[in-house]
From TrEMBL:
InterPro entries: NagB/RpiA_transferase-like (IPR037171), Ribose5P_isomerase_typA_subgr (IPR020672), Ribose5P_isomerase_type_A (IPR004788). It catalyses: aldehydo-D-ribose 5-phosphate = D-ribulose 5-phosphate. This is Ribose-5-phosphate isomerase A. Its EC number is 5.3.1.6. Belongs to the ribose 5-phosphate isomerase family. It is an enzyme of class 5 (isomerase). It comes from Oxyplasma meridianum.
Length: 222
């Protein structure tokens, strides 16, 4: 197992400790969350009673395969959301969407009382925040035109898999290289104001805590 995988698994195991009987859990997407689902599945198999709202068909399928009940919709607020991230800045803001699930991930995070992000150490970007191309979900209709407007904000964008990557919502992902992102709040607002943009992979002031896995232990930040 690669070091980063070990770190992801350690962070995921730590997050499972936060899950208590009766909780409604938001479930993110990605390889780190897959470890969380696996660990949660073990607890469910030994009697823990929880329900989940998942951010992708991939996570739903995996969770169900471990016997975790997944709801497609939920009127209330989830007790906790556990998700991964592509990069974290010094204030706990995130770049997400490497797996293309950013729209549902943001909906799930917004509707959760507590948002717990699980990452390996490489994701803690600090001043490098923005070196991971920012994923933006755009409508297939007029996608090239929409992208031109995002580029005017100072980026170079490429449609993921030349436009062949389709999200669970039937949209496309533009991966946008901005270089360093020092004001994620303003950038998120500017990108979201462009018609054709469905959602931006910047998660600003949304996290309750970041659990960073390291070789043998996990560290809570925030
Ligand atoms: C998916 C995401 C993931 O949380 C992000 O890409 C991290 O993935 P991984 O845990 O595989 O490194 O935002 O849309």
């Amino acid at each position: 197992m690669q070091n980063t995988d070990k770190e992801k698994k350690i962070a995921a195991k730590e997050a499972v400790q936060l899950i208590k009987d009766g909780m409604i859990i938001g479930i993110g997407t990605g390889s780190t969350v897959n470890y969380f689902i696996e660990e949660l599945g073990k607890k469910v198999a030994s009697g823990l009673k929880v329900k989940g709202v998942s951010s992708s068909t991939k996570s739903s399928d995996l969770a169900r395969s471990y016997g975790i009940e997944i709801m497609d919709d939920f009127e209330g607020t989830m007790d906790i959301d556990v998700d991964g991230a592509d990069q974290v800045d010094g204030n706990g803001n995130l770049i997400k969407g490497g797996g293309g699930a950013l729209l549902r991930e943001k909906i799930v995070a917004f509707n959760s009382r507590r948002v717990c992000i699980i990452v390996d150490r490489e994701k803690m970007a600090g001043d490098r925040f923005g070196s991971f191309p920012l994923p933006v979900e755009v409508t297939p209709y007029f996608a090239s035109g929409t992208i031109k407007h995002i580029e005017k904000l100072g980026s170079h964008c490429k449609l993921r898999q030349n436009g062949n990557f389709v999200t669970d919502n039937g949209n496309l992902i533009a991966d946008c290289e901005f270089g360093k992102i020092s004001d994620p709040c303003i950038l998120e607002k500017k990108i979201k104001s462009i018609p054709g943009v469905v959602e931006v992979g910047l998660f600003v002031n949304m996290t309750s805590e970041i659990i960073v896995g390291s070789e043998n232990s996990a560290k809570f930040i925030k």
